[in-house]
Design goal:
The chain is mainly α. It folds into 2 domains: about 5-240 and about 325-445; about 250-320, no CATH class. It contains 15 helices and 6 strands. The strands form 3 sheets. Strands 1-2 form a two-stranded antiparallel ribbon. It has a two-stranded antiparallel ribbon with strand order 3-4. Strands 5-6 form a two-stranded antiparallel sheet. Helix 4 (about 80-115) runs antiparallel to helix 5 and helix 8 (about 210-245) packs across helix 9 (about 250-255). The protein starts with a helix and ends in a 25-residue tail after the last helix. The relative contact order is 0.14.
């Protein structure tokens, strides 16, 4: 492999690894803030214990997300210098705001939350976690705005003298329809991720009969969150599919491996085909579903890969404008399939926990524990589809990926950094896993002794549970 392929592998590995932590951070921040709000409003000790327990796991995950995310931006200058030179005027703006505003809110107020348990009043301390949670959402939006510009470039002009794309409408970048659709989809997926995380750990503890007064309400909260957020994922995903059909027709055609323009177009739930994805051998299909996903009508016409390839050659010149068809086809379905399983688990969970019941059969608990990998798989395949489906473009219709790689960085240099980062991230994964398992198994802190409870002035409990 050359420098281009190695640079793509490195960016892909680091991005997917980093994105394991991002949705969990966003979702857990709001759920922990909700738990603390319930404690402040009701003074019920179980909510304080819930806040402390899930908050500790949230902090471990947040720290890992920060560490793994720092490398992301350095890659633009290291492996993708031509890309950075071409679009830095546009791409750098939302990333700069994310660092100066959103990450500032996250880190500063999260620090106040960590160290303010015994120093701030209840309501002021509660405000810190809410501001930190809002910071995670703002951070996600600015990053998605930058990525969405790569998917659907708006608000810029090409300067032939400098040979660069230059920003001329920052408002258009921030209100990009692709960014709005991606934001809704990502945030709802983040709540599903956090919900399943809580479901899995609560199931492990409930199966052992540990701290039922803490983990049963945690389970109920998480199941409701997963079910409601799953509906949001479906709705926002439908919006994204229609935007994708309009803005990146090749990606939608590749998602179905639809080679010839069809109307109506069916959706294949499962297909066996040739290794290159060019011919179908056998499939299970839902008539008209792809037409509905792409156009909103079961009779709508969806362009095929061959026609889009011919149109692209006519518009951009000779070249290969098809992404890796098997990768886009299967990641699209795996993303949907893993998401559907999580929604189904939430429905079953709410049924078995209905009317104050606590199931005793191990089957549901076992399924819930193993379900902890589902959001990771769904989020990862979703991002792989999003980025691989855009190829061969780094910026759709503007800059090819091959034209964005650093011309002076040798393949051996990229390979060395790829191996080093992969090994380092593997070590971090082991450390993170050990910490998560250790604190998840430890359970929530014990009830506060009577002599350490909050006084009439609303001061926080003594820092026996402080981080």
């Amino acid at each position: 492999m050359g420098a281009l392929d190695l640079a793509r592998w490195q960016f892909g590995i680091i991005t997917v690894y980093h994105f394991i932590f991002v949705p969990l951070t966003i979702g857990l921040s709001f759920l922990v803030a909700g738990m603390q709000t319930a404690w402040v409003r009701t003074a019920d000790e179980k909510y304080l214990r819930m806040t402390k327990f899930w908050g500790k796991l949230f902090l471990i995950n947040f720290a890992m997300g920060v560490v793994t995310g720092i490398v992301q931006e350095f890659q633009f200058g290291m492996n993708w210098s031509d890309y950075s030179a071409f679009v830095g005027d546009i791409f750098g703006a939302p990333l700069a705001i994310e660092g100066l505003l959103a990450f500032f809110l996250e880190s500063t107020f999260l620090g106040l939350w960590i160290f303010g348990w015994d120093r701030l009043s209840k309501r002021l301390h509660l405000a810190t976690i809410w501001v930190a949670a809002i910071g995670t959402v703002l951070s996600a939006y600015f990053i998605l705005a930058a990525n969405s510009w790569m998917q659907h470039p708006v608000g810029y002009r090409f300067n032939p003298e400098s040979g660069r794309a230059e920003l001329n409408d920052f408002g258009a970048v921030l209100t990009n329809s692709t960014a709005l659709g991606a934001f809704a989809h990502t945030i709802t997926a983040a709540f599903v991720t956090a919900g399943i995380f809580i479901v899995a750990i609560s199931a492990w503890q409930l199966r052992k009969g540990n701290a039922v007064e803490v983990f049963r309400p945690s389970m109920r909260l998480a199941l409701v969150t997963v079910l409601v957020a799953s509906a949001g994922v479906v709705i926002s995903g439908d919006v994204q599919a229609k935007l994708m059909t309009k803005q990146q027709p090749m990606k939608m055609a590749a998602a179905e491996a639809l080679y010839n323009t069809s109307g109506p177009a069916s959706f294949s739930v499962f297909t066996l085909g040739t290794l290159d994805g060019s011919e179908e051998v056998w499939s299970i299909r839902v008539p008209g579903l792809l037409s509905y996903l792409g156009t909103g009508s079961f009779d709508g016409t969806v362009e095929g890969i061959n026609d889009i390839q011919a149109a692209s050659e006519q518009k951009y010149g000779p070249g290969e404008y098809r992404p890796n068809i098997p990768v886009t086809y299967w990641t699209f379905r795996l993303m949907i399939g893993f998401g559907a399983l999580m929604g189904l688990l939430a429905l079953i969970g709410l049924w078995v926990f209905r009317r104050g019941r606590t199931p005793t059969a191990p089957l549901f608990y076992t399924a819930s524990i193993f379900a902890v990998v589902l959001p990771v798989l769904a989020n990862s395949t979703g991002w792989i589809f999003t980025e691989m489906g855009r190829q061969p473009w780094a910026v759709y219709g503007v800059l090819r990926t091959a034209d964005g790689v650093s011309p002076t960085v040798a393949a051996g240099t990229v390979l060395t950094s790829l191996l080093v980062f992969t090994a380092l991230y593997g070590i971090l994964a082991v450390v993170d896993g050990m910490l998560m398992i250790r604190y998840a198994q430890a359970g929530p802190p014990p009830p506060t002794p009577p002599d350490q409870e909050s006084d009439v002035d609303g001061e926080q409990p003594a820092p026996v549970f402080a981080y």
